[in-house]
Specification:
By secondary structure, the protein is an alpha+beta fold. It is 32% helix and 31% strand. It is built from one helix and ten strands; from the N terminus they run αββββββββββ. The strands form two sheets. Strands 1, 2, 3, 4, 6 and 7 form a six-stranded antiparallel β-sheet that branches. A four-stranded antiparallel β-sheet has the order 5-8-9-10. Strand 9 and strand 10 form a beta hairpin. The longest helix is centred in the first third of the chain and has 52 residues.
Length: 162
């Protein structure tokens, strides 16, 4: 009796391939999750830096102080109305929440970074001309970035680590 070989894979061959794919996925999944977390964190830091740069440019263009207020995982752009010396939310700029992907570890608490018409900047709580904001990844505390604002120029820069 002659057995004829049929086209295709045997059940054993398919189970071996499925087992290999499962092992490879188990090895790669933690790295993938960490990379996704880092990407979300980096995006949150860049959004903060972009908003700080935007406040500087708006202050220079409009000839009035513009600030970013940081409060419990959110930040918001505001402008100073010289008529009544009151800060108002900047039109068209909604409050942004970064608490799900990042947390500010220093200076901590609620604070503001103000930019002025001449391009300079001030940090609210100490009135220092320069500030370094340390931001940590909410999912991985060892992952951090620093946002620096130079008081004399108002320039914003982002670096890894704090």
């Amino acid at each position: 009796m002659c057995l004829e070989r049929k086209e295709g894979f045997s059940l054993v061959e398919l189970l071996i391939v499925i087992a290999l794919v499962a092992v490879i996925m188990a090895i790669g999944a933690p790295a993938l999750v960490k990379q996704i977390s880092h990407t979300k964190f980096k995006r949150a830091v860049m959004e903060i830096a972009v908003e700080l740069n935007a406040s500087r440019l708006k202050a220079i263009a409009e000839g009035r102080p513009v600030r970013i207020s940081f409060t419990s995982g959110t930040f918001n752009m505001e402008f100073l109305n010289p008529a009544d010396d009151t800060w108002y939310d900047y039109p068209g700029r909604a409050e942004q929440d970064f608490s799900g992907s990042a947390s500010i570890t220093s200076p901590g608490g609620n604070f503001t970074v103000s930019h002025y018409a001449n391009g300079t900047a001030r940090f609210s709580s100490t009135n220092d001309p320069s500030v370094s904001i340390c931001v940590a990844n909410a999912s991985d505390g060892s992952d951090s970035m620093s946002i620096s604002v130079t008081g004399t120029t108002g320039m914003v820069s982002v670096d890894t680590g704090c």
